[in-house]
Specification:
Blueprint (H helix, E strand, L loop, with lengths): L15 H12 L2 H8 L8 H6 L10 H14 L6 H8 L19 H19 L3 H14 L4 H5 L8 H4 E3 L5 E3 L7 H7 L1
Antiparallel strand pairs: 1-2
Helix pairs in contact: 1-4, 4-6
């Protein structure tokens, strides 16, 4: 696609569907993005993907169950996904739904952002990532002025102001002082 290869991720485990949902939650997190950017700036290769420190959580681990259920709520947003939802319901992750009922996943944009924030916090805690690490990663993108920098500079961040405008305020919170009002979902999606 667009001149690149598209690898397929397969899970060879007793519960590949739940494991793939857990992988999806972790792989799409800001924490994993932070870890990837420590290795590469522009192009992701399968060898880099293979070298990333994906956690090996037991299926019975409460954190794994929370992340898997959260990913499921973000994925199952259409009637075609009810089968997947009910497959996970049979494993006790969520409650079963009727095939004729409303879609079980989160459709509301604000609720989706809250669910994403919950995943981000859970994964960051699992990896020991601090608010200072998050601020550093965002600042670094602007300071190095590599390809991802334009995503952040559109919000008014420059090499001269980024350390003042993106900062950790405590161990768990990062403040971004943007140049003008934007839809919160737009800012979060850009991050």
């Amino acid at each position: 696609i667009a001149g690149d290869k598209v690898p397929t991720v397969l899970m060879r485990s007793p519960n590949p569907t739940a494991d793939l949902l857990l992988w999806l939650a972790i792989a799409n997190s800001f924490t994993m993005d932070f870890l990837v950017r420590m290795k590469v700036s522009l192009k992701m290769a399968l060898t880099i993907l293979d070298s990333l420190p994906f956690l090996r959580l037991s299926p019975d681990d409460a954190r794994a169950k929370r992340l898997t259920a959260a990913a499921l709520r973000l994925v199952c947003t259409g009637p075609e996904m009810i089968g997947l939802w009910n497959l996970m319901a049979a494993q006790g992750l969520v409650s079963e739904v009727s095939l004729e009922g409303p879609v079980p996943g989160i459709i509301d944009a604000e609720q989706r952002q809250n669910a994403i924030a919950e995943i981000e916090a859970e994964v960051a805690i699992l990896y020991g990532l601090t608010a200072e690490d998050v601020a550093y990663s965002l600042q670094r993108a602007v300071l190095l002025d590599k390809t991802p920098a334009f995503i952040l500079t559109q919000f008014g961040f420059t090499k001269d102001n980024v350390k003042d405008k993106i900062r950790a305020v405590d161990g768990k919170s990062v403040v971004l002082l943007i140049d003008k009002p934007y839809a919160p979902t737009f800012v979060l999606n850009c991050l």
